[in-house]
Write a structure and sequence with these properties.
It comes from Cacopsylla melanoneura. By secondary structure, the chain is α/β, with parallel strands linked by helices. The protein contains four helices and four strands. 34% of the residues lie in helices and 7% in strands. The longest helix has 24 residues.
């Protein structure tokens, strides 16, 4: 009988799926009975932290089976990432090809190109990038950078030097 109840509960859970932001809002509602105490800034911080943790977990799940010291290609396409923490790839010292296309990445951290200093090929097509960090100008290995389908209006002026 317990197994039947567990199956029924699982079916109810599947039927009542909400998207992630609704779940966070529900948790906040439960934690703070007076909604006036929850500022918009608090909610924004919580959602940002949740998104970062969610993105990091997706990337970690995708790379956990890879051979860190010798891997040269990492493919993280179509994962709906809105941010990417290059620190998650610090153990991969030989990365030369990184595929991040078809996500929602809006910016790269300042030290992105310092951390991933052996990249030869970087595919960032179809994201939401507005600009690139200036550290790209000092990257000596990068040969191919794909940026089509982003929101960029300018690149660092030092990039052509």
């Amino acid at each position: 009988m317990e197994d039947f109840n567990e199956i029924e509960d699982s079916e109810k859970l599947i039927e009542s799926e909400q998207d992630d932001e609704d779940i966070v809002k529900d948790i906040l509602d439960q934690l703070k009975p007076n909604k006036d105490e929850t500022s918009e800034a608090d909610l924004e911080k919580l959602l940002n932290r949740y998104e970062k943790n969610k993105n990091d977990a997706i990337v970690e799940d995708k790379i956990e089976h890879l051979n860190r010291p010798t891997e040269t290609v990492i493919e993280l396409t179509r994962l709906d990432l809105n941010r990417f923490d290059a620190n998650l790839l610090r153990g991969f010292r030989q990365i030369q090809y990184l595929y991040l296309q078809d996500n929602r990445i809006s910016s790269l951290q300042i030290d992105f190109f310092t951390i991933l200093n052996r990249l030869k090929y970087l595919d960032l097509r179809n994201n939401a990038l507005v600009t690139l960090p200036c550290s790209i100008c000092y990257h000596e290995c990068l040969e191919i950078l794909l940026l089509q389908g982003n929101c960029m209006t300018r690149v660092p002026k030092e990039i052509g030097k």
